[in-house]
UniProtKB/TrEMBL annotation:
Organism: Aegilops tauschii subsp. strangulata (Goatgrass)
Region of interest (Disordered), residue spans: 1-25
Record carries keyword Coiled coil: yes
GO molecular function, one term: ATP binding
A biological-process GO annotation: microtubule-based movement
PANTHER family with a match to the protein in the record: CENTROMERE PROTEIN E, KINESIN-LIKE PROTEIN KIF19 ISOFORM X1
Protein's UniProt keywords contain Endoplasmic reticulum: no
Family: Belongs to the TRAFAC class myosin-kinesin ATPase superfamily. Kinesin family. KIN-8 subfamily.
Identification of the protein by name: Kinesin-like protein
Stored Pfam families: Kinesin
Length: 430
């Protein structure tokens, strides 16, 4: 059979990628007619699956089991699954950052621009990224590249906010009530859905709002056995300056505190008594946050926003008073971006440079931590100084990487998945 221009190669009996993993014994079939559009899609996926190394299953890890026991509840099953599929990278003395990926639906703009989907999520865990060959690019016609990633969980575009919260963050909230620090941060390109995931909308509240509601609910349920107090602060890092979002004024200086780690001097701490009160404070803070339209996102967050909730629990143990303190940090990072994707000519370029500087500093820290280097360059940016605790300290940390399905954002998506994949290897000691 004469070879076809599209090199339509498929594996026999392969079925959809969710059906089974590829094996060496798969046969190759060549079409004797030009493939239909649907077949072309399968070819792309097949090429993608073929290029994926098959991960060996690893035994469940002791550290993960330990964490499963200490956290209790839902995260147990999730961690066990991670251990089984070999994506986990913890040792017997520590835990590691949990990494989740969330795919957003295709936007109207992307549809109008003729975008095609280049991301497929299978079994709520595996992410297949495919570089689609351009129809006009004859030289690259046959070069269809793909990669496979595996995370603690991956959320398809139809996933509800409540599911994202319960899978990624609910156990962290429980940990905070037991005196363990927790951090959740969203990472991704501009317009990929970070603010939607963290803050959400009035109808579909995001992780920040759901976490606060859950926290108050849990505190109320336990109010019979001690006293809880909840304090919160909300700040942004904009152009390498730290600003209080709850009482805007002069920029704040960062200083090191032996007990609390890096703190913003003079940051307002509000004592909160109800969810409604916190919602009002959040709304107020968000109005003060720096957002501007870029070419990619009409309400792009130009700053990194950090909401910190400190829960203090006092109870009597015999004749002495015991105090437990847990801190929950919820972070909406500004989007990583190519200058060309936003607007190079204005104030945006300075912001973009600073945003990229912080994110570059973040990637340097991730690299240093993964490689076990003694010196981690936290001081290279305000963002990494503030994240020091969450990345390298004693903290349960969750990263949610947000991605767009559009092939027009292929480069950004690849970049986000690369860093998310790397972050999986960061160990923490809780
Ligand atoms: N899961 C989702 N479901 C529905 N709409 C979404 C989802 N994720 C994002 N969107 C929509 O996509 C648009 C861009 O999302 P968002 O503002 O959250 O991006 P971002 O990553 O925070 O961008 P930036 O870094 O520029 O601030 C918004 O209109 C948002 O409502």
């Amino acid at each position: 059979i004469a070879p076809l221009p599209e090199a339509a190669v498929l594996r026999e009996n392969m079925g959809p990628p969710e059906a089974r993993a590829p094996s060496k014994n798969d046969k190759v079939v060549v079409f004797s007619r030009p493939p239909e559009p649907k077949e072309k899609e399968n070819v792309a996926l097949a090429a993608n699956v073929m290029s994926c190394p098959v991960k060996k299953a690893a035994p469940a890890l002791p550290a993960l089991q330990a964490r499963k026991l200490s956290l209790g509840g839902g995260i147990g099953g999730k961690l066990k699954a991670v251990g089984e599929m070999g994506a986990a990278n913890a040792d017997a003395t520590g835990s590691r950052i949990m990494v989740f990926v969330r795919l957003r639906p295709m936007s109207r703009k992307e549809k109008e621009a003729g975008s095609k989907t280049c991301v497929k999520i299978v079994n709520k865990k595996d992410v297949y990224l495919t570089e689609l060959a351009s129809e006009n690019d004859y030289l690259r016609l046959k070069r269809v590249r793909g990669r496979h990633f595996c995370f603690d969980a991956s959320f398809p575009d139809s996933t509800a906010q409540a599911e994202v919260y319960s899978t990624s963050t609910a156990d962290l909230v429980e940990g905070v009530l037991q005196g363990r620090n927790g951090t959740v941060f969203c990472y991704g390109a501009t317009g990929a859905g970070k603010t939607y995931t963290m803050l959400g909308t009035m109808d579909n509240p995001g992780v920040m709002v759901l976490a606060i509601k859950d926290l108050f609910l849990k505190v109320r349920q336990r109010s019979y056995d001690g006293n809880h107090s909840i304090q919160l602060s909300y700040l942004e890092v904009y152009n390498e300056t730290v600003r209080d979002l709850l009482s805007p004024g002069r920029p704040l200086l960062l200083r090191e505190d032996k007990q609390q780690g890096t703190v913003a001097a003079g940051l307002t701490q509000y004592r909160a008594y109800s969810t409604d009160e916190v919602m009002k404070l959040l709304q107020q803070g968000n109005q003060n946050r720096t957002t501007e339209p870029t070419r990619v996102n009409e309400t792009s967050s130009r700053s990194h926003a950090i909401l910190q909730v400190v829960v203090e629990y006092r109870y009597m143990d015999g004749t002495s008073v015991v105090t437990r303190v847990g801190k929950l940090s919820l972070i909406d990072l500004a989007g990583s971006e190519r200058a060309i994707a936003t607007d190079q000519r204005s104030q945006r370029s300075l912001e973009g440079a600073n945003i990229n500087r912080s994110l570059l500093a973040l990637s340097s820290c991730i690299n240093a931590l993964v490689e076990g280097k003694r010196h981690v360059p936290y001081r290279n940016s305000k963002l990494t100084q503030l994240l020091k605790d969450s990345l390298g300290g004693s903290c349960n940390t969750v990263m949610i990487a947000n991605i767009s399905p559009s092939n027009l954002s292929f480069g950004e998506t690849q970049n986000t998945l690369h860093w998310a994949d790397r972050a999986k290897e960061i160990k923490t000691k809780v």
